[in-house]
User: Fold this.
Amino acid sequence: MGLSTHVLDTMHGCPAAGMRVTLYRTAGAQAELIKRFTLNADGRNPDGPLLDNATIRVGTYRLVFDVKGYFDARGVALPEPRFLDQVTLDFGIANTDQHYHVPLLVSPWSHSTYRGS
Assistant:
């Protein structure tokens, strides 16, 4: 159970290893930092779930993915300003006894997400 994420780089067809991600708990316009982390070789949090059963709560959350920094580090030459800089996903957790998986498929020009399993 808990909360997890997984990022795939659709431009290169691989996990987004090295991408920086930030997780917040939100309440209206307020955002409380929960953690910052860098994705491992599989495009996942190296420490496992972002929130486990003991820390997940009903409420709203935000994941911020540093897309610009990731593609810069990969040496992708793109015009400035970038089409995508940070991808921000706001989502809600209504049931803490279920697993919430928030995958991101991303390129320098597009992104897609869904509630995974």
In short: The chain has one domain: 2-113. The beta strands are 2-9, 14-15, 20-27, 30-38, 59-66, 86-93, 99-106, 111-113. Residues 67-73 form the longest helix (7 residues).
